[in-house]
Amino acid sequence: MGVSSSYLGALLSLPVKSAVRHSTPVLLTNSPVSQAVNVMIRDNVGAVIALENGRPVGILTEKDILSRVIKAEKDLDLIQIREVMSQPIISIGSEKTIKEALDLIRDKNIRRLVVTEGDELLGLTTERRLLETAHERYMLRNVDRVKRVISEKVAKPSIAFISTYPPRECGIATYTSDLVDAISRLYVLNPPVITAINDRGSYYDYPSTVRYQIERDEVESYSKIAKKLNQSEVNVINLQHEFGLFGGIWGEYILNLLGELEKPVVTTLHTVLQDPPKDAERVLEEIIKYSDKVTVMARIGIKICEELYATFPDKVRYVPHGCPNVPLISSDTVKKSLDLQDRVMLSTFGLISRGKGIEYAIKAIPEIIEYVPRVLYLVIGETHPEVRKQEGESYRHSLIELVESLGITENVRFVNRFLSKSELIRFLQATDVYILPYPNREQISSGTLLYALSTGKAIVSTPFLHAEEVISEGGVRGCEFRDPSSIAAMVLELLQNENIKNNYQKRAYQYSRDMIWPNVGMKFVNLFYETLDL
Questions:
Q1: CB-neighbour burial class of residue 77 (10 A; exposed 0-12, middle 13-18, buried 19+)
Q2: CATH class of 156-322+517-531
């Protein structure tokens, strides 16, 4: 028998805001079309919204540019968006249903629909995006908890996330934002409540989902937020934990909050040290004690928690770091858009800091270019903001000096900025071999590893804890710690043997499929429901 009509009807009755691309670029109507083309390429999108007097008045699509500008042989720099955009704009309220959106798209014979919330522009949706949203939920039709929430309209739990959060530039902030988006797209929980961690002396223009803020180095701020969360409608707290995120010795101020919370806590551990300093062990032991459930991003983390922190086996769960769901495409198809079509691309990305081992990858480049002279190694990402406060750009400068001393300035390039997700994915898709040269084994989670896997890259990595699991399953080519010659040998093995490289690419991509964000979001939803005994 098929899925009941009530479940399918419930999918169509989901609000259209659950299928919106929120990051749709906007430009003024008097902007040149060439600017729109640059934005489309940069953000990997097929349309921009045109604004006039602060309101959306039209959409400029790739088709508009091709048919009304390129084919008409008009100058992209001289013609303005208002002259060739599609108008009038067709919009729909965010609370309208997916069915109503589909009906409107078909009645008006359009491909894109602007979604508004009150007087505010929310973003764009398309038939494909509406289909993806319905399909994600359809694939969960046999998950009892989700089916009950969608079909029977039971009360949805509310989750509060405690973490750093964008626009703060921080790997944990990006992770939490991606997790929140993945869960929100499932539309089986109430809108998230974010408690953001502020660093000393900083101000951030947070989105409206950030309800509370904790000042990292003010111990009383933690107790204050605990009281607010206790008084709120929140049902479960999700704490994102990383050493250095919270104030006090090894982040001990977070214990003040946990000790006063009266609601269940699910803690995500981004680092689990095998041989921790005494204070670090004390703090993490207390965090685990206060938590109802704990998640780790590598299976070895469960063993460490059980053996070192005496944690009960049913308390700790493996939930992988999420990754984007992107198509597997050849690097050559993307290089041209970055003007890198003549280079063999290596890359490493992430917020730059000591302990990433980038110097070992740089020292491997001279040996690599002896055999593959067209190699270009991209070090992608700005210096970590917290590192920059402590030591400025000294580590990056030392890497630049190393490049100069080795005489490889034509083969190493630094992309010194915080990239948007679409930019990052484009650089990764253009990469031939991705390098992860972490010098220490204890790294138990790596978002950069997952991103490289999700784009189907051939990866050379040291066997830190997270990578060790993937290496053992054939998804990554392992190299030795702090060993430039080992890195060079493994990179050359992949570059000089196309069949081997292709096999690693396919295995990497296949390995990542269970870790795409919709699947990870669903794992957390199930855990939140389980914590509430629902």
A1: exposed
A2: alpha beta
| Token digits of residue 76 | 């992209």
In angstroms, the first-to-last Cα distance of the chain is 27
Calculate ∠ Cα 9-13-17, nearest 5°: 145
Of 522, 439, 488, 509, the closest CA to residue 186 belongs to 522
Domain at 5-134, CATH from 3.90.550.10, 3.10.580.10, 3.40.309.10, 3.40.50.1010 = 3.10.580.10
CB 441 within 8 A of CB 465: yes
pLDDT digits 0-9 by tens, 108-158:
888 888 888 877 777 788 877 777 777 666 655 555 555 565 555 557 899
Of 126, 124, 191, 181, which is closest to residue 157 (Cα–Cα)?
Answer: 191
* Cα–Cα dist 410/237, whole Å: 49
Q: Is the entire prediction scored with pTM above 0.85?
A: no
Give every strand in the sheet of 112-117, ordered side by side: 91-93, 112-117, 120-126
Closest by CA to 56, choosing from 122, 146, 128, 3, is 122
